[in-house]
Amino acid sequence: MNRVGIIGIGHGVFGRRSDATVQELAFEAFRAAMQDAGIDRDALDASVIGSVPEYHKQRSLAGVVQEYLGLVPRPTWLTEVACASGSAAIRTGWMGIKSGLHDVVAVIGCQKMTELSTPEILALMGRVGEVQWESGFGTTFPAYYALFARRHMHEFGTSRENLLQVAVKNHHYGAKNPMALFRKEITLEKALASEEVATPFQVYDCCANADGAACVILASEEKATELSDKPVWLDGMGCASASMSVLRRPSLTGLPSAQQASSMAYEMAGVTADDIKVADVHDCFTVAEIMAYEDLGFCPKGESGRFIEEKQSYIGGKVAVNVDGGLKAKGHPIGATGVSMTVEIAKQLRGEAGERQVPDADVGLTHNVGGIGQYCFVQVLKKD
Amino acid sequence: MFKWFGKVNFTPFTKVTDFARHLKDGYFMGSRCKECGTTSFPPRADCEECMSPDFEFVEVTGKATLNTYTKIVAAPTGFDEVAPYIVGVVDLEEGGRALAWFGETIAEDEIEIGMELQIVPQIFDEIEDIKVYYSLEKPGTTWSKVEGGGAA
């Protein structure tokens, strides 16, 4: 009896949320997750907040969220690993339960980004590259992934269209997700006509900055079985790092942290890539999903262009990827994203994803990348 | 001196601060561990192999091959007036990598992955303060060096 179960999930609307503070966004997701779990606050031992503090005027975010959710005086803390902060929060909640210290933990990913201007965000995000030797040349976050894209195209013949086919797919499913920022389909022609950002990327290769929150309630196996009739199990928890600098990466066509984190997660869960029916992967840029197909073992190295062209990542293909719209269509409130992924996969495994439901989904995966792959968290989730 | 390095500098204080002085003098330097001889570019004060904190600067030829590149159109704060600009990542002949702007000797349509390049020390003329960087140029491009400079 040492599994960790998800007994409640909650998700707020992602987008430009000029109607709410970050703690108000956190409340929406938390309230939904508590209602879903059917428990009240007395059942909670602790909370973990995943967020990236630089975007908020409020310093030390865990405190204000904890207060607003009415969770004082329980233990709380903040986790930060750039865009993977949400998955880091889940991992530390999972660790707390695994260690026997806590029985039931609320994990909240939340972020308010749109109080800053786009150039300010570009400058801030660009500094998740190495600032001593790279940022002085005006590197941006899209530019780093563009460097990966150009190299992937060069080595494997991945086409410009292949990259944008990822965006077309994710908008296709995002249109069906009421929590998504962009709820409309796009065409390849429209994407190819969009403005340049960092070549080969245009606007439609890039996810959008957003505000939002998501929440999961985690419980020990004993508590999960007692409190829930439909727990989803966090059975594989992989986590790895890679160099901060692109100058010290072995290859620029994949993320070594994702390769290592997924191997760990598969081994811990006793599954292989072939067992995964549904996955939420970190498509901050189109090429990030392309690299994820290979890093996670969904297809052999270099074949992800064909993988998307053959629609193998659509529902009905080899593995359904980002059928909630992904970061691309859902929006990417960076601290909330990892938790949002776990919420979505839990929903799929519970068979509650509506018109986006993947048939017979029993094993699912999340792949949450921090920065340009400096951090990667992979979870394997199971229904039974 | 490290505050001289980069159009915008985010790390003015570092143990490899002399890198920028050498660059201003026309010398492109990496580091070498005095204990085990491991070399590094970008230079680092502390050896990643043997953890020795004793290092010296060694000149790097700057001969390089283009690994990948991108033209940045949407620029961050502080770079708006120079956008768009093309950034390349190069593999250095002596090992290590560098990221830099393409310079004036190469036209945009000539750029292709795998091309040979030369890293050349540069000074921003249009900025009053001393500001140095390096650029990616055609092989064979020459530049002036301060005589007697480049000593470790």
Could you walk me through the main structural features you see in this protein, from its secondary elements to its overall organization?
By secondary structure, chain A is α/β, with parallel strands linked by helices. Chain A has a domain at 4-116 and 209-227: Peroxisomal Thiolase, Chain A, domain 1, CATH 3.40.47.10. Helices cover 37% and strands 18% of the residues of chain A. Chain A is built from 13 helices and twelve strands. In chain A, α3 crosses α13 and α6 crosses α10 (286-295). The longest helix of chain A has 16 residues, at 22-37. Chain A is globular, with a radius of gyration of 19 Å. Chain B has 152 residues and is mainly beta. Chain B has one domain (2-137): OB fold (Dihydrolipoamide Acetyltransferase, E2P) (Beta Barrel). Chain B has one helix and eight strands. In chain B, the strands form two sheets. Chain B has a five-stranded mixed barrel with strand order 4-5-6-8-7. In chain B, strands 2-1-3 form a three-stranded antiparallel beta sheet. In chain B, a hairpin with a 4-residue loop joins β5 (85-92) and β6 (97-102). Chain B is globular. The model of chain B has no long low-confidence stretch (mean pLDDT 94). Classes of the chains: A alpha/beta (384), B mainly beta (152). Chain A binds chain B through residues 118-120, 122-123, 126-127, 131-140, 142-143, 146-148, 150-151, 154, 195-201, 245-248, 252, and chain B through 5-11, 14, 42, 67-80, 82-85, 87, 89, 96-101, 113-114, 133.
